[in-house]
Amino acid sequence: MQQRREVLKQSLAVAGLLGATGLFPQFAWAAFNKSAFEAKTIADAVKAYGGAAPVESKSVTLTAPDIAENGAVVPMAAASTLPNVKHLLVLVEKNPNALVAKFDVTDAIEANVATRAKMGQTSDVYAVAITSDGKAHYAKKEVKVTLGGCGG
């Protein structure tokens, strides 16, 4: 039992040193695209990932509830049948920051993802597929958020 506690103490000490020197956060945030997650509009978020102006497409599907009784956890799913999809984005238009989630997709996996998002108010939700040639295709759906989960 003493060995386990010593290992935990040493691990915490190493993590603290890495955090204090700034080395740990550098690697932890390496893939974080700050401009995309701070984007206020759908177009700005898509542009931050190299996509052109998004065009509505039947090859992209968005699954979300018509009415979300709890805006803190709204389930959403995005899928695409387009070839060469590079990124799948889930965006909420009226959130303070539009980008909710970004998924990197390769030819080795199916472009089909699911997540949960926080929504402060009724808004259009977008699923955007960005292909390797920079084209952006989207599907959208309005999700109504009720106050207090009472359906009104």
Explain how this protein is built:
The protein is built from four helices and nine strands; from the N terminus they run ααααβββββββββ. The chain is an alpha+beta fold. The protein has two domains: 30 residues, no CATH class; 112 residues, Immunoglobulin-like (Sandwich), CATH 2.60.40.2470. The strands form two sheets. Strands 1, 3, 5, 6, 8 and 9 form a six-stranded mixed β-sheet that branches. Strands 2-4-7 form a three-stranded antiparallel β-sheet, with no helix packed on it.
Notable characteristics:
2 domains; 152 residues; 4 helices; Sulphur_oxidation_SoxY; three-stranded antiparallel sheet; disordered C terminus; SoxY_sf; six-stranded mixed sheet; Thiosulfate oxidation carrier protein SoxY; Immunoglobulin-like; globular; alpha+beta
Strand content: 35-45%
CATH homologous superfamily assignment of the largest domain: SoxY domain
Structural class: alpha+beta
Question: Count of helical segments?
Answer: 4
The name of the CATH architecture of the largest domain is Sandwich
Gyration radius, in Å: 19 Å
Biggest beta sheet summary: 6 strands, mixed
Termini separation (Å)?
56 Å
CATH domain fold name of the largest domain: Immunoglobulin-like
Low-confidence stretches: 148-152
The strand count comes to 9
CATH class of the largest domain: Mainly Beta
Average pLDDT, all residues = 85
Instruction: Identify the overall geometry.
Output: globular
Q: Helical residue percent? A: 10-25%
Query: Secondary-structure element sequence?
Result: HHHHEEEEEEEEE
Compute the number of structural domains: 2
User: How would you classify the quaternary structure?
Assistant: single chain
